[in-house]
Amino acid sequence: MRRGPRLPLEELAPYLLELPDPPAPFDWTSVFDADRPVEIEIGFGKGLFLVNAGQSRPDLHFVGVEIVRKYQLFTATRLAKRGLHNVRVACGDGRLFLRDRVAPASLHALHVYFPDPWWKKRHEKRRLFTPEFAFECARVLRPGGVLHFVTDVEDYFHMVADLLKLQPALRPLPPPQPGEPAHDLDYLTNFERKFRKQGKAIYRARYERGEAAS
Ligand SMILES: C[S@@+](CC[C@H](N)C(=O)[O-])C[C@H]1O[C@@H](n2cnc3c(N)ncnc32)[C@H](O)[C@@H]1O
Fold first, then answer.
1. Residue 137 located in a structural domain
2. Which residues pair with 206 in a beta bridge?
3. In this structure, are residues 169 and 210 in contact, taking their beta carbons and an 8 Å threshold?
4. For position 3, what pLDDT does the model report?
5. How far is CA 128 from the centre of its chain?
6. Cα(26)–Cα(152) distance, rounded to whole angstroms?
7. Domain CATH code at residue 71
8. Is 4 among the domain residues?
9. 208 lines ligand 1 (CB under 6 A)
10. Element (H or E) spanning 52, and its range?
11. Structural domain for 23, as ranges
12. Ligand 1 pocket mutation, candidates 1, 40, 41, 44, criterion most atoms within 8 A of CB
C-alpha cells in the first residue's frame, strides 16, 4: 500500500474502536465523548471515504467496520496523520457488527460502497447483502436516516434492490449525481476512483428509513 509506513499502535489507539466481548450495542456518546449524529461505513478498504467525510463533516461522527486488519491500521494511520478525531475504525464482520453492536434506530446514515459480490456458490456465505443484512440496515437507521449503496456490478445492484424492496421501512430516494472530481482524492472511495478512471459503469442508490417498523 502507498503513502508511507503505518504509525505505531500507540499513536493509532485513539482511532481504533475495540470490540468488547460479549458484544453489546455501543453507546456512541461514550465512544466519542459528545452527542452528534453517527454514520457507519461497512467495508471501508483503504479509507478514502472516511478520511474525506471526517474532514468535510466535523459536525458528524463516523465509524468504519472492515474485516481486514491491515486496512483498519492503514486507514487509522491516515486518520491519525490528519488528526480526525470524529472517526473510529473497527476490525470485524460488518454483518455481525450491525446485528450485535448497533442499537435500533440509532444511525444517521449507513454507507456500503463496492462490496465484494461473491457470486460463486462456494463463496456465497461471505456475501454482505443477504435478507438478514437488509433487515439490519432498516433496523439500525433512525427515521429519516439514509442507506447509501454503490457498486460496479449490475446484477448485484438489482439483487440488492430486490432485497431492500422487502423492507417496508425503507423507501428509495433519487440516486446521487456525482460531479467531476477536482483532484485525485476527490472521489467517493478508492474503488470509485479506480472504476471511474477505467470508464466503468457505476450503479448508485439511496434509501431512506421512514417511520414504519420493518
Ligand atoms: C471491493 S472492496 C471496497 C473497499 C471500499 N469500500 C472502496 O470502495 O474502495 C470491499 C471491502 O469490503 C471488505 N469486507 C468484505 N466483507 C466484509 C465484511 N463482512 N465486513 C466488513 N468488511 C468487509 C473487504 O475487506 C474490502 O476491504
1. yes
2. 148, 173
3. yes
4. 59
5. 12
6. 32
7. 3.40.50.150
8. no
9. no
10. helix 48-56
11. 9-209
12. 44
Question: Among candidates 99, 98, 86, which has minimal Cα distance to 51?
Answer: 86
Q: How many domains does the chain have?
A: 1
CA of 94 to the centre of ligand 1 (A): 9
Q: Is the CB of 45 under 6 A from ligand 1?
A: yes
Threshold 0.85, pTM exceeds:
yes
Cβ of residue 43 lying under 6 Å from some atom of ligand 1: yes
Q: Where are the beta strands (DSSP E) in the chain?
A: 38-42, 61-66, 87-91, 107-113, 141-151, 170-173, 203-209
Q: 27-41 burial, b for 16+ CB within 10 Å, e for fewer?
A: ebeeebeeeebbbbb
Q: Do the domain assignments include residue 2?
A: no
For residue 90, give the nearest of 138, 141, 42, 123 by alpha carbon: 42
Return the pLDDT at 125: 86
pLDDT along the chain (214 residues), means of 10: 77 97 96 95 98 98 98 97 98 98 98 90 86 98 98 96 97 95 97 98 98 60
In a domain, 183, yes or no: yes
Give CA–CA dist 86/184, Å, rounded: 23
Active-site residue, selected from the candidate residues 59, 100, 116, 155: 116
Q: Which of 39, 37, 50 is nearest to 188 (CA)?
A: 50
